[in-house]
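Ligand-bound model needed. zinc ion.
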Amino acid sequence: MTDKIEIKAYPNGIFGATTYLIYDKKTLEAAIIDCTSSIEEIEKEIKDKKLNLKYILITHGHFDHVYCVKKMKEKFSNSLIFMHKDDLPLLKQVEVQCSMAGVEGIETPCVDGLLDEKSQNLKLGDNEIKVIHTKGHSKGGVCYLIDDVLFSGDTLFCASIGRCDLFGGSFEEIQDSIKNKLFVLDDNIVVYPGHGEKTTIGYEKKYNPYFGSNY
Ligand SMILES: [Zn+2]
Ligand SMILES: [Zn+2]
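Prediction:
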């Protein structure tokens, strides 16, 4: 597993979503991946370690993953919020998503830049952050690959996959995304999902029940 990047997980977000704080150990450049809880704790960590928060990276536009994005940006106004362009319609609806789920208090964040698979010059120190578009849970869902760790949002979980019955979801698309864009990665890559325990590409290729004997 990566020795260049430090990873901290805050798994107690809305609907059990996880916020990740990652940083390059050499340059202390940092990114937050999804932001759904623990604002004060993360703020303290950033200040204690003297990190430079460059990015807030959104895996997809569901409210449980972006719940605290706006508040975090207010604390670190130099950081840039990025997400895939195809989930912008979802993001614009986060207040509606929240009220349908009976959750209060979200404010819609403004995005600083929109991603697709070609727009890849995100870096933490020397490490490129690769954007992998993995539609299927939502139209604009992405995974972020940095060094040998993958942040998989709600696309791939430990022994499971994301729901496909929500707006923009498709079982065929999520299967295609996982098979052709994630399972082609190295088996040793550690996967940090948007909910639940971490896993590896190799483990999921073998044991994920949605693919099972195909692999
Ligand atoms: Zn989701
Ligand atoms: Zn989720």
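The CA atoms of residues 159 and 208 lie 4 Å apart.
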